[in-house]
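Hi R.,

Here's the chain you asked about this morning:
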Amino acid sequence: MTVPDYIFSVSWEVCNKVGGIYTVLSTQAKVLKEKSCRNLIFIGPDLNPDNTLFTETPDVHSDWRQHAQANDGVKVRIGTWNIPGNPTVFLIGFDQYFSMKNSIYADAWNFFGVDSLHAYGDYDESSMFSYAAAKVVESFYNYNVKNNESVVFHAHEWMTGLGSLFIKHSIPEIATVFTTHATTVGRSICCNYKPLYDYFEGYNGDQMAQELNVESKHSVEKQAALHADCFTTVSELTARECTQFIGRTPEVVTVNGFEKKFVPSSKTTFFNKREAARTRILAVANRLMGLKLSKKTFILAIGGRCEFRNKGIDMFIESMKALRADARTAEHEVLALINVPAWVVGPRPDLKERMAGQKHYYDQALPMPYITHWLNNMDEDAIVASLRSAGFNNMPADPVKIMFVPCYLDGNDGIFGKSYYDLLIGHDLALYPSYYEPWGYTPLESVAFHIPTITTDLAGFGLWVNHGKRGNGRLQDGVEVIHRTDSNFAEAVDSIKETVLKYFKSTMNAKEKMREAASEYAKEASWDKFITYYDQAYQVAMKSAAKRK
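And the predicted structure, written out as tokens:
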């Protein structure tokens, strides 16, 4: 196997925590650097001069950087990403290209047929970053790379597709890999509450992109996929979408793994962090709701991006409503968390005041005792509206209480003061009833932290579990995979409720076995094993590029 001399991995989410792609890249970096390439360089946007995820190292490639800024007009800061493996990162500025936008888009149309006429929203910003990334790699290649060295340009998601196209045009010796983590058309169909699965074969990608007003994003995604030396995606589910909507079947399915370094290896450390997480979660809930929830309170949660239908947040709330109404729940105390970032203003001053005080318990709940941070759009938020409609007032007699945590948990939220992983470890059960989920990092993260998990067969992770050596996912094996379709919402809600009740009934010994079984899935899905799919993709790309040499 030929190992690339250089890999440039380009994403909007390098040193920029937005969604699942950040998790993909930040957890794979250590293994990719050790096993696949001695010169692994991540490229991301330079959005914040005080980025805490980035440590600048001015002496690295200093000669080239000075040359590039003086002669090629690129703006680049070089440093390391503060994650396991500490990989090299180029953070690049791209403002200088906005004045050239029209000519760049004209070239994109003339060279590759990319339609930018219907662009809006984040298209321009992403495209200028992507173009800047291509210019940085072109400059680096011309200054540093020897004729016999192999280079891979790996573009992640439509936001970097334009750069991939320009690289192939300007330096055909570079092998290009394009990965779509979710198709633009597939995601848009679901976000617009259209049935994706019942009428799947009848959808035309170009036609739906026009109807859903995502023509430019779909166009650059499609052309990047068609022109790449190797096209990949993250699951068989999304590979099917690519064939239908883009017109090219991915050569390699690069399923997502996880880095075990994020999980405490010491049992003592794990236990202490779990207890600290539970103590903090219950402390916030008690002060918010005016309650005295016991240490034995059963904590379950959903997390991820704020996509109400796609991520199954609607089904989660309905499942908790059904659980609350079931008489069998009465003997249990349940706290359900919705850890989903929304359009947050900041921590509630009244809750922040209670958290800072010496008093641990209050007789009165705060107003709206189901949300920890205020939102800019409180009256329009779908989650808030659903909680109100479902009557989740978190009264003392309610067997199921819900707490909506609408902020990024980075340790600086003003209420919890802990990161997402430092709170995740305290959950008893995780629930991700996704409708559209190309892979599903949230369930994989949960099982890595020994949390039995419920997901669906419309998530790539759920499908991978079902196709694994243990067969269809069952809770006793650590992961329950619920069957979901376009038309079985009520049945899926009932299945989730029954699965949670089954967990309630389990003995302590059985629950501990489930926790250990869940962690075994994470071992099977480690980057140590899954990085081989990336290696396959790089081999395909380099063989294709070699023909052009």
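The first strand starts at residue 6 and ends at 10.

Let me know if you need anything else.
M.
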